[in-house]
Structures
1.
Amino acid sequence: MGNKRLYWPAKSNYIPPASSTSIPKKDFVYDAIFIGGGAAGRFGSAFLRAMGGTQFTFEADNHLGGQCCKHNCVPEHFAYDNSVYMDHLRWFGGQLWFPEIPDKLDMAPIFDVYRKVRDTNVYQFMTDQSKGQLGIEFAVYKEAKIIDANTVEVDGERYRAKNLVIATGARPRIPNIPGINLKGVITHQELVGIDYEPQKIVVIGQGKTSSGYTSFFRSCGCEVTVVNRSPIYRWLDDDVREFVISNMKRRGIKIHEGVKIKEIKGVEKVEAVVFEEDGKLKEVPCDTVFLGTGVVPNSEIASPLGVEIGPNNEIVVNKKFQSSIPNVYAIGDTAGLPYVMSKARQSGMIAAKNIMGEETEMMDRTIPEFMFTTYEITWCGLTEKECREKYGDAVIIKMPPDKLDIGLPLAERSMVMAHLHPEMSGFQKAIIEPKSRRFVGFWHVGYGAKAAFQYLPVLMDKGLTVDEMATFHELFLNAEHFIQLTRLRAGQKNLSNL
Ligand code: KPC
């Protein structure tokens, strides 16, 4: 069974104007041919062009920008934004000036709106920017076949390049569970094209993408049950995890951890999920199963080359994103973990630099991460436990302090929550290695701190101390309270928790 579902649902009507796309040259040797024009391929192509190189990018789908604007980042954030509004209306309804909302709100029209805007605005922007501003040469609806390390075949014609860059992304991992092919078993890809109204959803697997959708389903008023093989969100700091999970449960999401999924039941359509928990068989009725069981890199295209493939089907690369054949690069999700946008885009840039003769490796920076529930959860660096294990000690600055259900933190977007439901306004934590007085981790659950987490790891990697942060200028009231809280402790010779 495995990963045989390779279709790309949620079809789009967008067709780029012929004047925006290019005709590849047959009697020419490009510096690079990119296979795939998603985030990695598009940024790589743009960077190579900017450096004066020649490229051609073959895209199998109808647009550049890849899964990001089709099934991943954009719909995920759109669902999250809707989710927060619905969640807030549910908690605020009937108080202050807030109206009451119905128990069940439909999600199909939400994705209808998303698809319309995507097809007309986002795809068009991808075309216009790529061609007009960046000078990328590309063609869409073009399935490329690799012939050798310098040649691809498209529509029966052969094209040549000094380097090949494989940027074919990843697909959802479909677990081997009886009933997995029943109607109503969907991934985030099918969700975007949903044409019925789910009422009862079982989410199998709680990854960083399914987490946001889990809360979105609940915000819409669905009955939502999470089933997971192991404890969920094991990557989070313990205090952060506690706040996040307790707030999911507070909103009525049922969570079963450490379970063994036995079967997805149904005749034509999914009807229930059966799993084993504490040695007992349990059955949760549902009309939809949402899979959050990870992704698999699309590396099959490289099989004619015999490049090294890793354990999760990724093309194995070095820090220059070269495969085991030096002039064949793999970038983005095709090159394996981490499956994050920043790596996708940077890997394109790094491959382009190396192709153009500027030897470059990906810098060993701390990578910030985020996920959604009805909160934005952002982090970089170590958990408190990891800090104690590594350095033997940790000083913690957090808000709210232990056992205090107070309306803090509070800033834009958490103000009303902090006043109406103080215990739910958010949570944040900074972790300091006390001997060096350096920050080693930042964690935030709330709203509006994500942008800061693009810069905090850079400062942290440069050795940011509490004494230095105490000199920063906060824009009070600010989503992350790290600056002002740090300043309250920086005067201490021996730092203590706050
Ligand atoms: C709005 C938007 O830019 C989302 S799609 C991004 C795809 S890409 O710029 O190629 O990473």
2.
Amino acid sequence: MTITEWLKEGFEKAFPGVELPEIKAVPATDPKFGDYQCNDALEIAKKAGFRNPREAAQKVVECLSSEYKAEIAGPGFLNITITPEWLGSALDSLDSDSNCGIEQLGAGKKVIIDYSSPNAAKQMHIGHIRSTVIGNAIDRIYRALGYSVIADNHLGDWGTQFGILIKGYRECLTQEERDNLAVATLEKCYVESSSRAKTDEAWKTACREELVKLQHGDPDDVELWKKFIDISINEFNRMYSKLGVKFDTWRGESFYRDMMAPVVARLVEMGLAEESDGALVVRFEEEGLPLAIVRKSDGGFNYTTSDVACVESRIKDYDPAEIIYVTDDRQILHFKQFFIICSKMGMKAKLVHVPFGLMSYQGKAISTREGNLIKLDDLLAEATRRAYEIVKERGGDEKLAEEIGFGAVKYADLSHDPATAIDFNWDKALALEGNSGPYLQYAHARVCSLMDKAGNPDVSAFRYSIASPSEKLLALQLLKFGGTVRKAAENYKPSLLADYLFQTAQLYSSFYQQNPILKSEPEVRDARLKLCALFGRVLAKGLDLLGIAAPVRI
Ligand code: ARG
């Protein structure tokens, strides 16, 4: 139980039926007032009918369980002290918890997380890091909370671009390029074919004809399309395996292609969609949102239709309690609209959009047109190169360089609140110092080397003895790990966990500076080593939840 929960329980017992303010425990300003302080008895005294607020505080103290200790001070403050015994036993239970203090809130609950979801036939660039890395951290965090997670890559594998691609493949590529087809080649032929379509009417018509043929199942076009998708998935998987990202399913937009017509028919039946200029639209007057087209005037369906069909299909196949989507914030309206449609159609899952700020480069949106497209592959290679420069002096290899370089890239993203936009900057993305992934990895490696020096003792035989203020701060912080993971999940913000880990590493560092370990008396030394080991375990677990490796040596 946290101190706030403990206090709240006491207040509720002391003042049944009284409307309580938010009960808060703030760190004490001076250690002689204990560890925490709560001023809420003062505020509530009058409401609860006490003339003297000290009496109200007294009532609370009588109702508090014995978990922590509270004393009344001044006009009715509560000073809360955490005893070394309490800390020791709290740390013991953290030690014996195989989930590292993470409550299994998700046990028996299913969640689908739709993330990364790039468009096929295009190379991944730095703009794709965010959905991939944030989505994967949320995925890992939910799994740690005991949820049964289905990571679903909703590939953009259907739509007008395939008519353009098929035409381009047949006409813009050499035989050699066709024989050695790669995503980069597809991208090139797409650019060429689509720019021809802009000036050449006949070309444009031909592209559209290929699209219609594909949609009607023409075997040659379908075979080509499949080839494009396979090549794309292969290429994406090459990135994902570097990044330690794995999907449970790859149901792209095409998976839902035959489900869209029936969904739209039902929308019409339910009176939710109506005709407008030859198209079918859903209006959101009550919600104050612009209308959404669900069938275009040419009879084709769109992104909205496909996402509604997708929710229905996911509920039918998986029956998830929640579906979480991680995309950039340009899609906020799209998600609002189709979530409303799903709920009006009676679909029961909780739908959540986690929008992240767009990544720009030198103040400009990342796009082929701007010519500022940095490929994800190149970013990862540069990250590895920079890390290698540093680790090679200490005998580190390529693998270690990747762990550190990728850790830097991931952390640079995850340490921001997802909602903030990021202007990509090589030095920041690859930072090896300060509030960075490598700083945390280094802190972890240092604990491991300390344990090595101590002869890797079995710390489970040792006893905690939290004596000095910096030890106490570190111990309290470690106890907050589970709660932080939960908060990160509830708010869909891995950044909360990143912040926590950075603070924890800083507290460890002051503890380490202020408390000699190996040179202390055996009993003190053992107690401190035990705390160090726990710090190492929490840090490694936290990094793992962010998808960042925790090498034992750097
Ligand atoms: N392919 C889309 C994009 O590149 C993201 C898809 C997100 N998922 C979804 N169900 N709409 O922006």
